[in-house]
Specification:
Blueprint (H helix, E strand, L loop, with lengths): L1 H6 L3 H19 L5 H19 L4 H5 L5 H8 L1 H8 L11 H11 L20 E3 L14 E4 L8 E4 L1 E3 L9 H11 L5 E2 L7 H4 L5 E5 L15 H8 L4 E7 L11 E2 L6 H7 L7 E2 L10 H14 L5 E5 L4 H14 L5 E5 L10 H6 L4 H14 L7 E5 L5 H9 L4 E4 L1 H7 L21 H4 L4 H25 L13 E5 L4 E4 H4 L7 H4 L3 H9 L8
Parallel strand pairs: 4-13, 5-6, 6-7, 7-10, 10-11, 11-12, 12-13
Antiparallel strand pairs: 1-14, 2-3, 8-9, 14-15
Length: 533
């Protein structure tokens, strides 16, 4: 049945080819009038064959002839947008302009528009960055951020925009190859929690090895952390950092989920699990149960990795827990080298709707919570902060840096750069463009070199856009960004205030010396020996 469904993708081409054969035969044997059928069907057959062999459009390689219907609809999108584009199929608003920017940059087209903004700039909550009357020159070299605290002996120069976590298994082998080849020597590629595959290593791109609660790639048969296996892989020359995932924005409190249909022999071997069975990671770690134990585990991992940067990733839920983690760092004299804050609005993986909508802080609040907690405890100078959650444009990068981040990660935008059309078939193994599937016949449509170039172009153009915005704000470097430079329109009155005024920003070691009233209760409730207050 699966094979029959798969072959249906070529039905239009088969019908055209068959019709062309019979029409040509009819022309030769019966009447020249058959040419009126033979010529168009021969033309369509030739077009279908070209669709299969060309490398630019994955959807045409998987759906010859039929795929052109999508491009026809896109060409008349202004007339159809009220029905098909401006809203997702679940009825929630969707900003199509962002996706268009990613597509254009990935294809090497300068992202410009005529007739002004499509956003309602007078709407409540509208945010904008403050330009300067004295803009600066844009530097030629893209900026990087050095990740590595005092206990790190192999610091890493992180780009302002990197590939966020997407595992092999969730994505196809060709998608992983294209991402890593695109990142080669320019920015970092997060492996996701599915382990390190040979597709992550083939092109030599810089890796952030993410380890989740399943400990895939460094897992004992019982599901515990395997220190020996971890040490071997963490010391690989391509692995530049290790990221321990506590939770993710799409589904905080739940582990990762990979449907059994995607768990073939290869993926099962990489992850250390039985093939053909759905892989559900535990919701919590077995290697530690308190903030203090977590910090000790980070020190253990750094030692096993021979001094490479070790980070943690989380979707913030409770400020008390963040402060408990800070107290544990102070008590143990040990800290992670970086923290990636995942917003509740982020996540490319499948997640229960209630978890996606109801749990976890949005990136803005989570990011500022972590930044202020580290500043208030005097730890900020030794820990870099990454922001992950719907990062797609240069403006997104600059806003997050102004809110306290040092670098950003993108998943969804990188999938767009690969050719993702948001078919929402990721969990079915039937992705029409070969991005999120383990079906090799579908994945072959994604041409690695072509899509790697798109990933590279998108990332470079977006970082360049961020550099131009920073220069337009009168700044020489991202480090000069400040919350006062990000403004928001409030309420019906239309009052505009900066982030410096809207939120409380702690001074260095303020929590240690004289906690403000608004933080005092949480600070006293935080306990380095337990996560809950």
């Amino acid at each position: 049945m699966k094979s029959l469904i798969d072959l249906a993708r070529y039905t239009a081409l088969a019908v055209c080819a068959t019709s062309a054969v019979f029409a040509t035969a009819g022309t030769c044997e019966q009447s020249w009038w058959w040419w009126t059928v033979a010529v168009p069907t021969l033309g369509l057959t030739a077009l279908g064959v070209w669709d299969i062999v060309q490398r630019r459009h994955a959807i045409l390689r998987n759906y010859p002839l039929l795929g052109h219907a999508r491009f026809m609809l896109e060409s008349i999108r202004p007339e159809l947008q009220q029905y098909f584009v401006e809203r997702n199929f679940d009825g929630r608003p969707y900003d199509r302009a962002v996706r268009d920017v990613v597509y254009q940059r990935a294809k090497g087209i300068e992202a410009k528009t005529a007739f002004g903004t499509e956003r309602d700039i007078y709407a409540e909550g509208h945010e904008f960055l403050a330009p300067s009357m004295a803009p600066r020159r844009v530097h030629e070299m893209p900026p990087t951020v050095l990740v590595g605290g005092p206990d790190c002996t192999q610091p890493y120069a992180m780009s302002l925009l990197n590939i966020s976590a997407m595992s092999f298994g969730a994505l196809s082998a060709n998608a992983i190859l294209a991402l890593n080849k695109g990142a080669q020597g320019r920015f970092a590629h997060d492996t996701g929690e599915g382990g390190i595959s040979e597709y992550h290593l083939r092109h030599g791109g810089d890796l952030i090895w993410q380890i989740g609660t399943g400990y895939f790639g460094c897992r004992t048969p019982e599901g515990d952390f395997d220190a020996d296996a971890f040490a071997v892989k963490a010391r690989h020359r391509n692995v530049k950092c290790v990221l321990l995932k506590l939770s993710q924005g799409a589904k905080p409190g739940l582990g990762g989920l990979l449907p059994g249909a995607k768990v073939d022999t290869e993926i099962a071997e990489i992850r250390g699990v039985p093939p053909g069975r759905t892989v559900a990671s535990p919701p919590h770690h077995r290697a530690f149960s308190t903030p203090r134990e977590l910090i000790r585990f980070i020190a253990h991992m750094r030692n096993l990795a021979e001094g490479k940067p070790i980070g943690i990733k989380l979707c913030v839920g409770d400020r008390v827990q963040v402060l408990a983690l800070c107290k544990a760092m102070l008590a143990e004299g040990v800290s992670p080298d970086f923290i990636v804050v995942d917003g509740s609005e982020g996540g490319t993986g499948a997640a229960p709707l209630e978890f996606a909508d109801e749990l976890g802080m949005p990136l803005t609040e989570g990011l500022m919570t972590v930044h202020n907690a580290l500043v208030g405890t005097g730890l900020r100078s030794r820990i870099r902060i990454g922001a992950s959650g719907k990062i797609a444009t240069g403006g997104d990068i600059v806003k997050r840096l102004a809110q306290g981040a040092d670098f950003t990660n993108a998943a969804r935008a990188m999938m767009f750069a690969l050719g993702c059309i948001q078919a929402r078939a990721c969990h079915t193994n039937a992705c029409p463009v070969g991005v999120a599937t383990q079906d090799t016949r579908r994945a072959r449509a994604l041409h690695v070199t072509e899509k790697a170039d798109r990933v590279r172009r998108y990332q470079a153009a977006t970082v360049r856009s961020a550099q131009h915005i920073i220069a337009a704000m009168g700044l020489d470097s991202p480090e000069q960004l400040h919350p006062r430079m990000l403004r928001r329109r409030l309420g019906a009155s239309g009052e505009i205030r900066s982030y410096a005024d809207l939120y409380q920003w702690l001074d260095e070691e303020q929590l240690l010396n004289d906690p403000p009233v608004s933080w005092r209760g949480d600070w006293h409730a935080a306990d380095p020996d337990r996560f809950t207050a």
